[in-house]
């Protein structure tokens, strides 16, 4: 038991330390086609039955998006139905698409989504040129970053360090431009050259129903995830319900949306800044060393405290065990003494037969009458468990409980010795036609009170 407690203690301590130092990592989700032209996620939060009102509303709503001719912004949001059959849906086309290209993408994406999520009440699909999403919950004007999908490109950059120095600020600039869009479109695209011959083309986009702050926050987190999922790659995508990022080394959007993005060269660090950075690094090193030492001291102190408490507990248990052994020895009767007291368990001394064995009347050499219960031999209880149980029962002392005087163990024999009750069992008086006349209602009331006091003692004081 002690080793288990110590193991749990150190596991919990390790988990706490890991939680303090481990960064938060977003969980990649969803399924993509082989070439990642389409990625989707079917939520398991609820299902509908084929042919029911929810499906009818869903099909009607999504069909209206792909057939609408009144929207030139590429963003659609609407609801259909009531109560549990209400469907909320959003569709977003890439900001550079024409209306015809947008509707074509929505039409194909809707078909793929409904085929793969045929009974789910909530799902999303990301195509290269559009996104379709529906849910039974409210989704309008709410920043949603889950589920998400990371799609890294297959090829590595020629110079990952130089590539990263251009990619990160490029995505940061496009993030700010997209977040500054209006309620119809939040989209920005552009390119920047990388020293060495590569050119990065990138875009950032949010659903225009969320505000500037939420759009910027969603894209900022996505830029961080680009570094995690696609670092060193020539291309990558981060796909979320409320925003998406993409970059490649070739043009993947319409040239009319492309703009050269000027990436400021990193300014050389001034001597004062270098000295400040050096001091900052020294300060960080000192803090890290101090934290590590403090954690080490805490762990070491905890170990010492644990083993000290364990040693004291073992000593107490040994003392308790020695007391228990003494008590057990004082309660144990010799088998020959019990057999002699019951006249070798003769039928003449037999008082009754229960489910756990026969009960005999006996008389010890000092003239004391005892009741001997000879337990059946088919019990699976071990000798040690039997002794422990006898020790506990023998300590129960109450005037309304028959007292256990001791026990006997020998060659498969398990015997309990109780004080002898000359008036026999209560059921003899209750059910015997003649003797039940001795029990008037006042006597029965006293008997009930005694039984209740015995039970109360067992429950609260034993």
List keywords for this structure.
transferase; Killer Toxin P4, Chain A
Secondary structure tally, helices: 10
Please state roughly what percent of the residues sit in beta strands, choosing from under 5%, 5-15%, 15-25%, 25-35%, 35-45% or over 45%.
Answer: 15-25%
Say which CATH homologous superfamily of the largest domain is assigned. Answer: Phosphorylase Kinase, domain 1
SSE topology string: HEEHEEHEEEHEEHEEHHEEEHEEHH
Measured distance between first and last alpha carbons: 25 Å
Largest sheet: 6 strands, antiparallel
Q: Order of strands in the sheet with the most strands?
A: 1-2-5-6-4-3
Number of strands: 16
What can be said about this structure in brief?
With 462 residues, the chain is α+β, with helices and mostly antiparallel strands. It has 10 helices and 16 strands. The chain has 4 domains: 26-135, Killer Toxin P4, Chain A (2-Layer Sandwich); 149-257, Gnk2 domain, C-X8-C-X2-C motif (Killer Toxin P4, Chain A, 2-Layer Sandwich), CATH 3.30.430; 269-331; 335-461, 2-Layer Sandwich (Phosphorylase Kinase, domain 1), CATH 3.30.200.20.
């Amino acid at each position: 038991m002690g080793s288990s407690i110590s193991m749990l203690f150190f596991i919990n301590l390790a988990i706490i330390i890991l939680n303090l130092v481990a960064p938060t990592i977003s969980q990649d989700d969803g399924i993509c086609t082989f070439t990642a032209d389409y990625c989707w996620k079917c939520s398991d939060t609820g299902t509908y039955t084929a042919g029911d009102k929810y499906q009818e509303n869903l099909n009607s709503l999504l069909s209206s998006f792909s057939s609408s001719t009144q929207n030139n912004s590429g963003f659609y949001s609407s609801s259909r139905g009531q109560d549990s059959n209400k469907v909320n849906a959003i569709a977003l086309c890439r900001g550079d698409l024409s209306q015809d290209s947008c509707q074509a993408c929505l039409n194909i994406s809707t078909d793929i989504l409904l085929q793969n999520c045929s009974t789910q009440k909530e799902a999303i699909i990301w195509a290269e040129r559009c996104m379709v999403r529906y849910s039974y919950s409210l989704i309008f004007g709410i920043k949603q970053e889950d589920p998400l999908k990371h799609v890294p490109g297959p090829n590595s950059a020629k110079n990952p360090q130089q590539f990263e120095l251009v990619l990160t600020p490029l995505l940061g600039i496009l993030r700010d431009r997209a977040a500054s869009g209006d309620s119809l479109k939040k989209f920005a695209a552009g390119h920047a050259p990388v020293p060495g011959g590569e050119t990065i083309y990138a875009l950032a986009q949010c659903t225009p129903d969320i505000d500037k702050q939420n759009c910027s926050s969603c894209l900022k987190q996505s830029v961080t995830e680009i570094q995690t999922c696609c670092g060193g790659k020539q291309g990558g995508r981060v796909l979320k319900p409320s925003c998406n990022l993409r970059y490649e080394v070739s043009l993947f959007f319409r040239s009319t949306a492309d703009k050269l993005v000027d990436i400021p060269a990193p300014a050389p660090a001034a001597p004062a800044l270098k000295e400040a950075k050096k001091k900052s690094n020294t300060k960080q090193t000192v803090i890290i060393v101090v934290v590590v030492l403090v954690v080490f001291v805490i762990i070491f102190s905890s170990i010492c405290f644990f083993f000290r408490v364990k040693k004291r507990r073992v000593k107490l248990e040994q003392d308790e065990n020695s007391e228990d052994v003494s008590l057990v020895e004082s309660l144990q009767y010799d088998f020959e003494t019990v057999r002699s007291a019951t006249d070798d368990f003769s039928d003449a001394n037999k008082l009754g037969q229960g489910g756990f064995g026969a009960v005999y009347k006996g008389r010890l050499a000092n003239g004391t009458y005892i009741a001997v219960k000879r337990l059946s031999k088919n019990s699976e209880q071990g000798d040690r468990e039997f002794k422990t149980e006898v020790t506990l029962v023998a300590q129960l002392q109450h005037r309304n409980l028959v007292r256990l005087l001791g026990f006997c163990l020998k060659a498969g024999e398990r015997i309990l010795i109780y004080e002898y009750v000359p008036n026999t069992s209560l059921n003899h008086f209750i059910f015997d036609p003649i003797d039940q006349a001795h029990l008037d209602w006042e006597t029965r009331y006293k008997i009930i009170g005694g039984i209740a006091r015995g039970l109360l003692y067992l429950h609260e004081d034993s």
